[in-house]
Amino acid sequence: MPAFTPPPPVAVQLLPAQGVGFDGSVLGQSLETWRAAQTQSACAAPVGVVTTCTLPAVNLGDGNMARDLVFEFVDGRLARIRFLTSIDAYQEVRALLDPRLGAPHTIQRNAIHLDESVDTAHLRDSWTLAGATVILNDPERDGVSLSVTFALDSLAGRLKPEPA
Q1: Which of 36, 51, 133, 156 has the fewest beta carbons under 10 Å from its own?
Q2: What is the 3 state secondary structure string of 27-87?
Q3: Quick one: how far is CA 132 from the chain centroid?
Q4: Left if phi > 0, otherwise alpha if psi is -120 to 50, otherwise beta: which for 24?
Q5: Which residues of 11-35 are buried (b: 16+ CB within 10 A; e: fewer)?
Q6: Residue 6 above 70 pLDDT?
Q7: How confident is the model at residue 148 (pLDDT cuts 50, 70, 90)?
């Protein structure tokens, strides 16, 4: 079996001038527009008003991948984008977010209980702008991932809560 070779780095964009988003996807855009631009997407059958789609991993640079990319649409509008990456990618993720979003509005430091492990230091950076909220959690409960979530405030209440 050949060794896995990550795709080359791509120009990851957060699109604040047109709205808040990630890698060419913008919160609030229609499912049809999103699908037309995403040739490698996979979408599940809608559950009520929510359609969930996924994309393959995106190279963030320095060997770090945005994986488990999930895009959730409410009534055909992009309401939430979420991905995981290595906890080692904190600096790369902040380097993507800060120039486009500015400094986080809040930084919370606390402790979380890792899955099947112990309490550990936890950092939650939050940005709020243009009717959207962006949250970086480091680490996730698995102890090896950090997550980034982009949510459209007006539709977020109609989605299932994120994993705790």
Answers
A1: 36
A2: CCCEHHHHHHHCCCCEECCCECCEEEEEECCEEEECCEEEEEEEEEEECCEEEEEEEEEEH
A3: 13
A4: left
A5: ebebbbeebbbbbbbbbbbebeebe
A6: no
A7: very high
What are the tens digits of pLDDT across the range 41-71?
999 999 999 999 999 999 988 889 999 999 9
Question: Which residue, chain included where needed, has tokens 């009717």?
Answer: 131
Pairing verdict, β 145-152 and 77-86: antiparallel
Contact of 28 with 19, CB cutoff 8 Å: yes
Closest by CA position to 79, among listed 159, 160, 152, 157: 152
Reading the block at residue 10, the tokens are: 């791509």
Which residue in 150, 93, 142, 102 sits closest to 122, CA to CA? Answer: 142
Q: Cβ–Cβ contacts within 10 Å for residue 143, how many?
A: 14
Structure tokens at 46: 């809608």
Torsion of CA 62, 111, 102, 9, to 10 degrees: 20
Look up residue 47 and give its two tokens: 């559950």
Which tokens in the block code for residue 87?
């906890």
Phi, psi at 18, each rounded to 5°: -105, -5
